[in-house]
Structure formats: C-alpha cells, structure tokens
Design goal:
Layout (H helix, E strand, L loop, with lengths): L3 E5 L4 H14 L2 E8 L6 H11 L3 E6 L1 H15 L10 H20 L3 E3 L8 H12 L4 E3 L1 H5 L3 H10 L13 E5 L2 E5 L29 E8 L2 E5 L2 E2 L2 H13 L5 E7 L5 E7 L1 H17 L2 H19 L6 H14 L4 E8 L2 E9 L6 H4 L11 H25 L3
Helix pairs in contact: 1-7, 4-5, 8-9, 10-11
Length: 403
Amino acid sequence: MSETIVLAYSGGLDTSVALRWLAEEYGAEVVALLVDVGQGVDREAVTARATAAGAADVVVVDAKEELAREFVLPVLQAGALYEGRYPLVSALSRPLIARHLVAVAREAGATAVAHGCTGKGNDQVRFETAVAALAPDLAVRAPVRDWGMTREQEIAYAERHGIEVPVKRGAAYSIDQNLWGRSIEAGPLEDPWTAPPEEAYALTLSPERAFHAPQEVEIELEAGVPVAVDGEELGLVELIGRAAALAGAHGVGRIDMIENRLVGIKSREVYETPAAALLLTAYAGVEELVCDRDLAHMKAELAARYATLVYNGLWYSPLRAALDAFMAQTTAAVTGTERVTLYRGSCAIAGRRADSALYDHGLATYEEGDSFQHGAAAGFIHIWSLPSKTWSAAERSREAAPA
C-alpha cells in the first residue's frame, strides 16, 4: 500500500513540481491542500493544476476568518513587529496552514506532510516546528530542500512533465501574500543597493502616484478589536481589506529592510503591509490613552519578544500562550476611536479618544484649570533623588580619602 502525503500546495512553481516529485520519488498518493488565507486564489485553476500534476486529491480550505481572528488579531493587539518593522505577514499564515495540514493528514490517514520551502528560508522552520508541536508522530517531507534544483531546473522539470505553472523563465520575484500583507524577494531585490522596481508592488501606489490630497480615516475599536471604519461596522476580514485599500491608495505600508533570518543569514526583504500600517497605528493611538505607564513599558518589551517568537516559528509554544495572557490584560480597556491621516506614504495620528482614557486634562494642562499639585514636586524629587545623592556623597568621600 502506497504512502499518503499531504502537501501544503500553493499552485506555484515550487509546490507544483514538488507534488509530482513526491509522487515519483516516494511512490506516494499526494493530497494537495490549498489553504486560502487571502492571497487571491483561483480555486478552479489551482485545482486543475494540482490534478494535472498528479494529485490523488485536492482539498481547498477557506481560512481567512481563522487567520484574521486567531493570528492577525493577537499580533495587532500585541503591537508585534519583528526587528521593529516587520508585521509578521508570512510568519502568521504558516502555523495556520500547518494546523490544517495535520487535520487533513488525520482525515486521510497520512503518515507524512510536506511543504515547498527551500533550505535557507524561515518558512521551513515554521512549518516543521508547528507540525512537531501539533503531531510529532507525522513525518515531514521537504522536497524543494532535498532535491537541490535551481529555479531554471524546476521550470524545465515542469515543462518536461507537462505541468502548467504561472512562472516562466526569467521571472524575477518570489512572492507570498495573505490578507495581512505581501512579501517580495529575489530577483533584482537581492542587490541591497538597488531600489525596489515599481513593478514589484501590487498593493500600494507609489507616493508620487498616490492621491494628491490627504485623507482622514477613523478606526473604531472595542476591547481591542477593530470594528468599524469611518463609522461603518465591518467584520474583521472585510475591515482588514478596507484598511488595505485605503492605506494602499496613499502609498502607505511599504517596507524595505535587511532582515536577520532565523537560519543565520541576512536577507533583503520588501513588504507591502498597508492594512497592518493603518491598523497598528490606530490601535497604538487608542491604547496609549488607556494603558498604565508601567504596563505600557513592560508591554513594549514583551511585544518585541512576542514578535521574535512568532517570527522564529514558535506559535505553538507555552511562552506564546503565556504572553497572550499578558496581552489580554492590556487589551480589555482598548475601546475608542483613532483618527489617522493618510498622505503620500505617511500614516500619522490626527486624534484619539477612549472610553477609559487615563489622560486627565486638568493634570496635563499648563493653562487655566490646572489641578496638578506643583508644591508636591519638591518633596517627590527629594525622595526620588536620595539614592543618587547618597551614592554621590560616598563616591566623593572615597576619592578624597588619602591613598
């Protein structure tokens, strides 16, 4: 009886070739699993391509709502940005796809799952670490990592086996997309001195071509969840799409960074994250009104740790679960409205209000109505600076003592 392998299938070059390769090398029945995370899927075309490549079965799962609720929302609420810039686009879809890989493998009685990642990327780690956490008994095949084919050899393999793929010789970029954004790498981007060609972008207009007038957008949040744009209530998936369209039209959300990969190399990565740029700005604007000072400072430290954890493929880990519990404490009070100005590539806070704001005008103002007890400051500073004064006196005494 032949082995059954469930392959995380995208319909692109790598996974289409991998599908046929797995069937031939392992004599396996390959189930192609396509998980729709908002990348823009032509289901009929992809299903036909997988079948033509030799899939024993094709399973298509709509996981956009799962991605939005269970993966994007926690990262938004944490304010997690890897190396302070990257909002974890691909890093969020991989553990979700892995979860569905395991579920389909169980249903199909498969002994292994497979992915189409290379040997020097982050995604191989994310897939395999997630599967190890969810189903340690399943084997994981990595055909693209194992076969050592170049891109041109893959294209030749596809042509030789009559596999239609949406990539032809000379095509430049490697692209991954979901509803939270889009990553672009390879081709001319491998030279860090070269500016990203405009043709690489699809979700954002260049600032030069963006709308000539600024636009204000209001984002409403309830207990840390974005619920409305400009007064219109929307489901989370639809709201993320609306945010992406609004910000993208103003050239907002382009990121060009030299990223430190988990596998130890530096990589030039270009991202388009218009929805993330707008919603992270809106969330932070409301949160800073309601979050206690010490809690806010600790959250900023843990947000960086959270981002690194997710980037490194440890979504299914006790530490992330514990950090989620901490983040939930900061989320409950984040109810309010943020007004954001979009203009020529910039996304700036214009105003914010919150139901449980800790901002007190009487304490903050320098004008009439000032309720701050200025006279208390002298005693506070005396006590606060007492350790510094004591230390300084001791140091001076030590320096003045004869040798």
